[in-house]
Design brief:
The protein has about 150 residues and is an alpha/beta fold. Helices cover about 40% and strands about 20% of the residues. A five-stranded mixed sheet has the order 2-1-3-4-5.
């Protein structure tokens, strides 16, 4: 599955978040080119700060492969992962992170800071950014415009 195809799937998840009054971020995890997990933000639903799309997708992928290690997996997410999610990505040993829109406030792969530049870790995922970023941006802007009107 190509990055753009996988991002389209992540955008479907982001739309689910939007429709549920959650910040519209969606994520899929691929292994050998096939989706093994998908999730979207659910902080409001669970009332838990850790219920980011990436964390929920990692948990599902761990269950799918029956291992905490997600070696040779690609995580595709509509918005640049935050510091918490970058830590989980690193802990899970995810090989490749693909994201759409950069996040200057919280992004941990160049938006706010770059966790891959911190020396001493035993794992650094390969990063691809900017995939269908305009679609992610449109969803996020629409969501927050609606929020501001209320």
């Amino acid at each position: 599955m190509k990055h753009t195809e996988a991002m389209q799937e992540a955008l479907i998840e982001a739309q689910k978040a939007f429709d549920s009054n959650e910040v519209p971020v969606g994520c899929v995890i691929l292994k050998e080119g096939k989706i093994i997990a998908r999730a979207h933000n659910q902080k409001e639903h669970y009332q838990q700060a850790c219920s980011h799309a990436e964390i929920l997708a990692i948990k599902k992928a761990n269950e799918e492969v029956n291992d905490w290690r997600l070696n040779d997996c690609t995580l595709v997410v509509t918005l640049e992962p935050c510091m918490m999610c970058a830590g989980a990505i690193q802990q899970a040993r995810i090989s490749h992170v693909v994201f759409g829109l950069s996040d200057e406030k919280f992004g941990a792969y160049g938006g706010c800071f770059d966790s891959n530049l911190i020396k001493g870790f035993n794992h650094y995922p390969y990063i691809t950014s900017g995939i269908l970023s305009e679609k992610s941006q449109h969803l996020l802007q629409s969501f927050f415009q609606i929020k501001r009107k209320k």
